[in-house]
Design a protein that fits this description.
6 helices, alpha/beta
Length: 214
């Protein structure tokens, strides 16, 4: 490296759990879309922690920004499949992790999928699929959505370094639209299409964080 040259830009690591989520995000990378590391962690918080620990231990990933994404369950009445959730913080029994640049991210998502509702708030973690009355219990804590991996992903990333962190989830079911399985119903198809469309917004967020502040 030349003396006085700026340090290399920290990479962006996008983490998802499911094969169907990975397929949506990979399809967004075709045709010249921005590149970036895409990690499928497997389902559940423990799998997410293991996969993140390995990924962030690789050379060049010491300062990587981490964005957790995929599908989630909405907790607020009036939410619909295909709505987006931008976490202001993620929560699990160990505590909360604050997210970075949430307003920038919400703006980038609104540009990527005009007409889709973007919700900002707390995203809580669970070690199982949440249904029925448990949604209301989690909503009472102030959370607006729940998934199984985001909180564990960001907790693991937060513990290793001072790095940008974010979580974006696409609602696949909500209180009035509870689904049995993701891939077989209209709500799941809608969520897949939205997830496929938003990957460029993740890179817009990443680039915006790296711009010098005036």
């Amino acid at each position: 490296m030349n003396a006085g040259a700026p340090p290399p830009r920290p990479p962006l690591l996008i983490a998802c759990a499911l094969r169907i989520e990975q397929a949506a995000l990979r399809s967004a990378g075709r045709g010249g879309a921005p590149d970036g590391a895409l990690l499928r962690t497997g389902m559940g918080p423990r799998a997410a922690e293991r996969a993140l620990t390995r990924a962030l231990g690789r050379p060049g990933m010491e300062r990587a920004a981490v964005l957790a994404t995929g599908f989630c369950a909405g907790l607020v009445p009036g939410m619909h499949p295909g709505d987006l959730v931008v976490a202001e913080e993620t929560r699990d029994p160990r505590g909360a992790v604050a997210c970075t640049g949430t307003a920038l991210l919400a703006e980038a998502l609104a540009r990527a999928v005009p007409g889709r509702t973007v919700h900002l708030g707390a995203l809580t973690g669970s070690d199982h699929v949440v249904r029925g009355p448990e949604r209301a219990q989690l909503r009472a804590t102030g959370a607006i959505a729940v998934d199984m991996e985001s909180a564990a992903t960001l907790w693991t990333a937060h513990g290793g370094a001072d790095r940008p962190l974010a979580a974006v989830r696409v609602i696949v079911d909500a209180p009035e639209h509870e689904l049995v399985r993701i891939g077989t119903v209209r709500g799941g198809i809608s969520a897949f299409r939205v997830l496929r469309a938003v990957r460029p917004a993740f890179h817009d967020w990443h680039r915006s964080l790296l711009l010098p502040r005036r």
